[in-house]
Design goal:
One of its GO terms (molecular function) is exonuclease activity. With 245 residues, this protein is α+β, with helices and mostly antiparallel strands. It has a single domain, classed as 4-Layer Sandwich (Deoxyribonuclease I, Chain A), CATH 3.60.10.10. It has 6 helices and 11 strands. The strands form 2 sheets. Strands 3-4-2-1-11-10 form a 6-stranded mixed β-sheet, covered by helices on one side. A 5-stranded mixed β-sheet has the order 5-6-7-8-9, with no helix packed on it.
């Protein structure tokens, strides 16, 4: 039996289930009970058993901060890619991707807006059993003007997409008909957006997954396990994509 500190995710079988993607704001691995518990986040990841995870609010180490991503990589056995938005000797913090598939290329995009909290996007090419997907993991700002500027920067990367694309993360868009979401529809299929925040009583669909081409998207769902309810203040969001024809 696998212990809570060793929750490795088994290799996938794409022919039977397609591709499973998840986005998860891990809240620094601090649960709603105030406890720092990376092993609890790892256990939630094992429950989901996704092929690719986009994570937000991840401590990435430093002289005064834990390296939660390294702990998650060790506990799950997945490949890890860090996309720090704050990078100082004392503290590294930001986005991350965990995947069971090889990562072929990594790019970062600075989405910081004026004097507000630093933001960014982690842009990775991932070889998913012979098909390369471009996965863009991000965490947008709290102000509407900030999000509009950030989404325009992100969309400039997709004027001529050569690969299938997954854009996912915590978009912080509180309004169903906000300009950020309307702008994204011009490039991506409008997927179902169930409520993910806060876990105690979900009211807002802050976490989103967008796919191009849209016909590959089969289903979007929230992972509402008892463990996920306390591990972070966001529930994970999962998308199921069809295998390549």
């Amino acid at each position: 039996m696998t212990s809570m500190h060793e929750v490795r995710i088994e290799p996938p079988s794409l022919s039977s289930r397609g591709l499973r993607i998840a986005t998860y704001n891990v809240h620094g691995a601090v649960g709603v009970d105030g406890k720092l518990a990376p092993e609890r986040i790892a256990a939630v990841l094992a429950e989901i058993d996704a092929d690719i995870f986009a994570l937000q609010e991840v401590p990435l180490g430093g002289s005064a901060a834990p390296n939660v991503l390294a702990a998650l990589q060790r506990m799950t056995g997945l490949h890890a890619v860090a996309g720090p938005t704050l990078d100082t000797p004392a503290r590294r913090y930001g986005n991350a991707v965990l995947t069971r598939f090889p990562v072929r290329a990594v790019r970062t995009l600075d989405l910081s807006f004026r004097s507000r909290e630093p933001r960014g996007a982690l842009d990775a090419d991932i070889d998913c059993a012979g098909e390369t997907w471009r996965v863009v993991a991000t965490h947008l700002g709290l102000a509407s003007s900030e999000r509009r500027a950030q989404v325009e920067q992100v969309l400039q990367r997709f004027d001529t997409p050569e690969l299938p694309v997954i854009l996912l993360g915590d978009l912080n868009e509180w309004f169903v008909y906000g300009r950020t979401l309307r702008r994204l529809v011009s490039h991506f299929y409008r997927a179902r957006s169930p409520k993910t925040f806060p876990t105690r009583y979900p009211l807002f669909a802050l976490d989103r997954i967008w796919v191009h081409p849209g016909e590959r998207l089969m289903k979007v769902e929230v992972h509402k396990s008892a463990l996920a309810r306390v591990a972070s203040d966001h529930y994970p969001l999962i998308a199921h994509l069809s295998a390549r024809a």
